[in-house]
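To the wet lab folks,

You asked to see what we're planning to order before we commit. Fair enough. Below is the target structure as tokens, and below that is the sequence we designed to fit it. If anything looks off to you, flag it before the synthesis order goes out.
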């Protein structure tokens, strides 16, 4: 079932989840152990992140360096197939522009189509370590709206390869990302929303936001999106803060603000367990407020740790 159909037909708000695949070399049971606790809530879909290959340089004895391209996590197709084999849930893999040519991305999408996947999230992806800004491959996509447009073409049976005539049409529902506090590369929130509208105009069916800790920023963002002509469903994304260190780490990594009240609560904690509970309580408070104000669903970022998310969802839903 497509995510947009789930959103349109659901009689009540629901929780969905996002997983980070285990590192290469891990047992598949590590993946399953992160999913098992979530199945208590019968999620209609689970997102699986995608991670591009990384570049490392190792020194040689002569002073030169050897460039190595390393995959840190198993591939998207393998992760999706492993989850489908064990669980009755819609899997929504992330498909990214970074590190791939247009042809490679198309091949990945066709592999997902052959697996029976009907939902994807189309993302540009981040710059790799050592790059100041995102750099597309020579024959790759520079922006996610270009990726969305290609998926829309595949859904019409139009392939990149001009020799493919009467190609079988795919049937993807496309989600895209949004940033209530704006993407850090955008000049301002208004220009960022215009970028988001280009993704929707290219064929995106729904939107999932980056995590945030201030609901008012989310609702202000929603209002601006609607005024800009963006009418597709927008799902808020949340993550429970888990330690005082994240007061500094999360703004650096995700370019988001932490409300002063949450900062004060975290800094008053004396133990790791106490801080962990503060994060859970704040996320419960956020979730209840979002639901009371009519959001269609809440998307929880687990970061491979699910116990705090489980407590939040068990309390709220």
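Sequence we intend to order:
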């Amino acid at each position: 079932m497509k995510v947009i159909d789930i959103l349109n037909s659901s009689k009540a708000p629901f929780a969905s989840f996002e997983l980070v695949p285990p590192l290469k070399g891990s047992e598949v049971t590590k993946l399953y152990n992160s999913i098992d606790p979530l199945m208590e809530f019968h999620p209609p879909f689970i997102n699986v992140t995608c991670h591009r290959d990384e570049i490392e340089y190792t020194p040689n004895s002569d002073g030169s360096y050897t460039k190595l391209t390393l995959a840190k996590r198993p591939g998207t197709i393998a992760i999706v197939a492993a989850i489908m084999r064990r669980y009755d849930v819609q899997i929504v893999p992330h498909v990214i522009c970074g590190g791939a040519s247009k042809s490679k991305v198309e091949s990945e999408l066709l592999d997902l189509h052959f697996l029976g996947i009907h939902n994807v999230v189309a993302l540009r992806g981040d710059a790799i370590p050592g790059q100041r800004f995102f750099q597309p491959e020579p024959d790759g996509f520079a922006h996610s709206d270009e990726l969305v447009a290609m998926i829309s073409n595949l859904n019409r049976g139009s392939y990149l390869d001009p020799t493919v005539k009467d190609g079988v049409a795919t049937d993807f529902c496309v989600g895209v990302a949004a940033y209530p506090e704006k993407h850090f590369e955008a000049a301002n929130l208004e220009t960022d929303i215009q970028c988001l509208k280009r993704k929707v105009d290219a064929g995106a069916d729904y939107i999932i936001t980056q995590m945030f800790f201030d609901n008012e920023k989310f609702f202000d963002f929603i209002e601006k999106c609607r005024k800009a002509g963006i009418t597709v469903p927008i799902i808020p994304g949340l993550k429970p803060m888990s330690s005082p260190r994240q007061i500094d780490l999360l703004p650096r990594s995700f370019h988001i603000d932490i409300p002063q009240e949450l900062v004060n609560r975290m800094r008053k904690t004396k133990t790791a367990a106490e801080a962990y509970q503060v994060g859970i309580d704040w996320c419960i408070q956020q979730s209840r407020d979002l639901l009371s104000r009519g959001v269609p669903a809440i998307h929880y970022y687990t970061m491979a740790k699910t116990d705090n998310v489980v407590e939040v969802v068990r309390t709220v839903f």
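Structural context that might help your review: The radius of gyration is 20 Å. The longest strand covers residues 90-96.

Thanks,
Computational group
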